[in-house]
Specification:
This protein is mainly alpha-helical and about 260 residues long. The chain has a domain of about 160 residues. It contains nine helices and no strands.
């Protein structure tokens, strides 16, 4: 396995060396993911307790319907937790691999965006856990509760829980995506403002497609998306990329 070391933008390395570096970074990422999974499986009881915390106390006794279901459900939840735990390290490995392709000028644009990805992901996961999950669980379990006797299956609940948290982390990447589009001159701030109503419609569709099909959860998921969109416009303006007519030199690769 190749020793990983910084590669300069003007440094010439062979195609085989590129593949060797890619293989090494994939191996390091898999090692980090495996180590995270081992830690999560070691603390699986704690992780399952944390995942069940949004449930009312009367509904925290989740049922299983097969001899292997408890084990496989635990494995699945621990894998989701390991992905969340290892995400910052894996993001760094991806960035470190593609970084030499950018010139020093381009790096100054890309670096803040890349560093924001794991931070926003963690914020999104925390928001989904403390805001979206309690509201969604309360609404779904209390809906027509007089007509239904609800028994929660462990596999279904933990799958809903895990996908909701990951979806929360993903949707919080909106500022990074929009800033990247602006900095790459694909869109401009005036365009983002002009087509705001269409952006709101797209946000509503995204919120409806996220886990949790009830209207309460959809509204709760829409609020941060709308705020993140408006925040992205302010950040893009603050970075100085306010429009195609601005006197900002295009990013060119330095020789």
């Amino acid at each position: 396995m190749a020793r990983l070391k910084p590669v300069r933008h003007d440094e010439q390395i062979s195609f085989v060396d590129h593949l060797d570096e890619l293989r090494s970074r994939i191996i390091y990422s898999l090692v980090a993911l495996t180590a995270s999974f081992v830690v999560c499986f070691w603390q699986s009881s704690l992780i399952l307790d944390i995942a069940a915390a949004p449930l009312p106390e009367a509904d925290q006794a989740l049922i299983v319907l097969a001899p292997t279901e408890a084990f496989m459900t635990t494995i699945t939840v621990c894998m989701y937790a390991a992905i969340i735990l290892a995400a910052p390290f894996i993001s760094y490995q991806i960035f470190a691999y593609v970084l030499p392709a950018f010139s020093p000028r381009e790096r100054r644009v890309v670096l803040p965006l890349v560093l924001a990805i794991p931070t926003l992901f963690i914020i999104g996961v925390v928001f989904a856990y403390f805001v979206i999950m309690p509201a969604a669980v309360d609404f779904l379990l209390s809906f027509n509760s007089e007509q239904f006797s609800t028994e929660l299956r462990a596999r279904d609940y933990y799958s809903f829980f895990s996908t909701t948290l990951i979806a929360g982390g993903v949707v919080f990447q909106v500022p990074v995506i929009i800033l990247a589009l602006v900095r790459l001159r694909i869109v401009t701030v005036p365009q983002l403002r002009k087509y705001r109503r269409y952006a709101y419609l797209i946000i509503a569709v995204i919120a409806a497609a996220l886990p949790g099909v009830d209207p309460i959860t959809m509204l709760i998921e829409m609020v941060p998306l709308l705020l993140l969109y408006e925040l992205s416009i302010l950040l893009a303006r603050g970075f100085g990329a306010t429009g195609a007519g601005d006197s900002i030199e295009p990013i060119t690769q330095e020789n």
